[in-house]
Amino acid sequence: MMDNIKFGKFIRKTRHEKGLTQKQLAERIHVSDKAVSKWENGAGFPDIKILEPLAECLGVSLMELMQGERIVEPEIDRETAEQIVAQTISQSGQEEEWKRRMWKVKLLLGACACGIIYLICVGIRYLAWQEKGQIPAKLSEASDCLWYENPVLFYVWAGILVILCGAGAVYLLWKNESIREVKVGRQKAKSFLTILMDMVVVLLLHTYLSNIANNEQQLAMLPEVIPVNAYVTTADGSRQAGIFIKDNLVQGLMDSSYVDKLHMDVRLKAGIDRVIPGQWNTLDLYLEGVNCIEVSDCIKESDVVWNTGEDASFLKGTEAKCIVSKKLFEKKGWKLGERVTLCQWYYYREDESSLELFANPLQTMEYEIAGYVDTMDKWDDRFVVPPDIIVPFQVVRNCYAQEKIPFFASSASFELTDALCMNEFKREMKELGFCSVAPTVPDNSLNGVALNVNDAAFISTAEHLRQVIDTVRAFFPFLLLLIVGVGYLVTLLLLQSRKKEMALLRSIGLNRRKCFRVFFMDQLTLVVTGIVAGSLLSVLIQGNYGGNSALAGGLVGICYMAGNSLALWKLLKVSVMEALFAAE
């Protein structure tokens, strides 16, 4: 085998004899000055096609260049020449083979890097989608489809691809003679321990992150588990029905993005056809304007006998339709779909502090009977008597607007869309004009100005979950430092017996930086294998596909390799002679 060091010294000597710089020589044979420097340092060998022009430029024979020394004898026997040429061709061929192998290694490592980036991106995307409830959290919940259509299985296949590409790159590197001295992959027991340690650390960190994610998911789902209800009351909270809620407050509740399932009603007096002055007994009906059938917790849509094609949805709109009590329906002999004329009267007070109610005519309306229902013993205790007629809330409100009469709703209750935005909701309601309930201050008026929010149970549970999340997160930096320490100690213990290999590499000319890179790539391959295997194991055992697995794997890789690098650098600081002597 040709000696690269001897070959490099010969090029340097003959170049100096010619008075050429590395750059000048490189320009003459059309290569880079770095390539010339690499040859002279014994770190490389020129391509077989460059040997002849290199020999001509240096003023030596091709045989002298290949042998790496001046030939004193005028002739050399054929057998020796053939041996020198064969060695030269073999050396150049090995260089070419190494270049091709390195290209394959780069491609495999590139594919490995792309796979890791894909896993991380899928993880981040999964975390974002998981908050919206769009992705199954467990492998068992994945839909039954082909492997390339199933995101969970595709994630597993991507992890397997990363392992295979990494293993292929290690195998190609191991086939190189100079790298083989480091015994990459041949320390089976220690390599297995390193992979196993990484799998355990990933599994533990994955469990830690899953615990945080599960608590955050519980917190996000808390509004559904413990819905927060609110209703408008008087200032002291003593009354929530039969009160006067101003129109601007009604509109504010309707427009608020924090308000869901808003139930409102307005109470009126009514008479059939018209009320004759002096004959107030004809104003004998109670009319209720509601925005949904659920305003009354006692009447269900299924309790109503509907006209063909009708349902409770008309109560949300402005169609002049109504639901009448069964007693009134039978008493008047009405039929479904029939139109009846109602004279509507509204309640008012002389001033806002008064409890005495008066009635004034509002507007005469013609309603189509959409259905009838038995209201006896079904209406709640908000009013002494149940309504005789139920009409859309907005229809009554429009009547007030047309007559230019100030509108007041009789009750309002709702749920919060997102109880986690409690502070923002309360701030908006305060700006709207609502105040908090003050039970210690008696209020004799009927003004609906306060909000009673049933949020005690929700706040207590939410605070507990937040405390758990904050407490667990507080240990996160210490956990990462612990992983760095584990990587440092494990590497330091497992590589103690490989000091001789490091010393041998240093003795043949590799500096600390290059030696560090060789061992770092060896450890990196094992760590990546352990991380991917641990992530896949976490997916299969714990089921948090995507986000937690990718995040746990990435954090373990960064922290473990940081500790690994510190341990490697410490081991490489040992002197070559000391390491060789200790090995002996």
Description:
The protein has 584 residues and is α+β, with helices and mostly antiparallel strands. It has 3 domains: 4-76, lambda repressor-like DNA-binding domains (434 Repressor (Amino-terminal Domain), Orthogonal Bundle), CATH 1.10.260; 101-222 and 467-583, no CATH class; 229-454, no CATH class. Helices cover 54% and strands 14% of the residues. It has a 6-stranded mixed β-barrel with strand order 3-4-9-6-8-7. A two-stranded antiparallel sheet has the order 2-10. The radius of gyration is 43 Å and the shape is elongated.
Feature tags:
584 residues; alpha+beta; 3 domains; two-stranded antiparallel ribbon; 13 strands; elongated
- Oligomeric description of these chains: single chain
Sequence of strands across the biggest β-sheet: 3-4-9-6-8-7
Report the average pLDDT across residues.
77
Strand content: 5-15%
What is the global morphology?
elongated
Counting DSSP H or I runs of 4 or more residues, the number of helices is 19
Name the helicity range. Answer: 40-55%
User: Tell me about the biggest sheet?
Assistant: 6 strands, mixed, barrel
- Look at the helices and sheets and give the structural class: alpha+beta
- Ranges where pLDDT stays below 50 over 5 or more residues in a row are 134-151, 177-185, 580-584
| Radius of gyration, CA atoms, in whole angstroms | 43 Å
List the domain count as a whole number: 3
- How many extended strands? 13
Q: Quote the distance from N terminus to C terminus.
A: 29 Å
